[in-house]
Design brief:
single chain; alpha/beta; Arc Repressor Mutant, subunit A; Rossmann fold; 3 domains; six-stranded parallel beta sheet; 14 strands; 41% helix
Length: 344
């Protein structure tokens, strides 16, 4: 980062430090502050002067730096609120890198707990009034009142994958359904005609619905009629799952290919079939999400690699554009996921 821009990010970090402090509180000495933020004293003094000009701090000779007014807005902070930090790890990383390039800094807030806890987490984010917020919401809690409060607060906000119920805002996603359509087409092009769908409780429920819709759209595109007996979604009963597994015992009923709703359930299905001594050489399998597990599945696997790093960069670009251009309209953007093969 150019040296003459470091202080802009530093202003946001200092505002975060000031946030919530009582008036007349003392800040640490300049040298300690400079060491804490890894900057030179001249850069620190330039940022402190900007805060002094805004009436937030005052320097008293022989005393130190006094907080005169706690900031209500942290002007250079972007907050990433995320329900699934593990899945979005690459997105968080690229988001942070891009934000830093624009002289912003980020805070990561895990979105955990029940609905009431998540309400409190998001309310605390709203109260900080940062420059912008990215949210990947818990798919189980999409009707929280705080989403509407956030919209009223007029904080630039970007949602990942899907909007909460009744909310109109920026949206960045990749095609869950589109990826499954491409998988079905790929199987069809290799000669598969009995194509099954499989899912279990390890799939995000909303993503499962979207991917099931993609499966049906892919079958229609390939002019294949879905067979009820080859459909085993997460909602299937124990009896339905057993009936589905019995199909693999007979060459006449065994699927040519199985579209699993993610890599984890693909791995579990393959393990179950191996325990039943089912020969898998002539069956094609697919997963979704290109998890680290896919590299250890003992079968070639077709899977969808989400554009996680690209999503982080795009999220930062959109959010910063909104923060710096308040009258810019909402953006909807869908990124393309790649279908790849593993274990070849």
């Amino acid at each position: 980062m150019p040296r003459n821009n470091i202080y802009r990010e530093l202003i946001g970090k200092l505002e975060q430090k000031l946030f919530g402090l009582a008036e007349n509180s003392m800040l640490p000495p300049e040298q300690l502050l400079a060491d804490e933020f890894g900057v030179s004293k001249p850069t620190l003094r330039r940022a402190l002067q900007a805060l002094a000009n805004a009436g937030q701090v005052r320097k008293l000779n022989g005393v130190g730096i006094i907080v005169t007014k706690s900031p209500r807005v942290i002007s250079r902070e972007l907050i990433f609120v995320c329900y699934d930090i593990v899945f979005f790890a690459e997105t968080l990383k690229s988001f942070g890198i891009r934000a830093t390039e624009y002289n912003y800094f980020i805070s990561i807030v895990p979105l955990t707990g029940d609905a009431a806890t998540q309400e409190r987490i998001l309310s605390s984010v709203t109260e900080r009034h940062p420059a912008g917020v990215v949210i990947y919401a818990d798919p189980r809690h999409t009707q929280l009142k705080v989403f509407h409060q956030l919209a009223v607060a007029k904080i630039p906000t970007l949602y990942l994958m899907r909007l909460p119920y009744g909310i109109d805002n920026n949206l960045l996603e990749f095609g869950n359904a589109d990826g499954m359509v491409e998988i079905v087409e790929t199987f069809y092009q290799t000669g598969c005609r009995r194509i099954a769908l499989y899912g279990d409780e390890l799939v995000n429920p909303i993503a499962a619905v979207e991917r099931e819709q993609g499966f049906m759209a892919g079958m229609k595109k390939c002019r294949l009629k879905p067979r009820p007996e080859l459909h085993c979604p997460p909602s299937a009963t124990t009896e339905q799952r057993e009936a589905f597994l019995r199909l693999f015992d007979d060459a006449e009923t065994c699927p040519d290919a199985v579209c699993c709703l993610n890599d984890y359930c693909a791995g579990r299905l393959i393990k179950i079939l191996q325990r039943r001594d089912i020969k898998l050489e002539n069956i094609s399998f697919s997963g979704f999400d290109h998890s680290s597990l896919s590299e250890f599945i003992p079968q070639p696997l077709l899977t969808v690699e989400p554009p996680m790093a690209e999503m982080g960069r795009e999220a930062a670009d959109i959010l910063i554009k909104q923060a710096e251009n308040p009258h810019f309209g909402f953006l909807r953007r869908k990124l393309r996921a790649s279908v790849i093969s593993t274990g070849q």
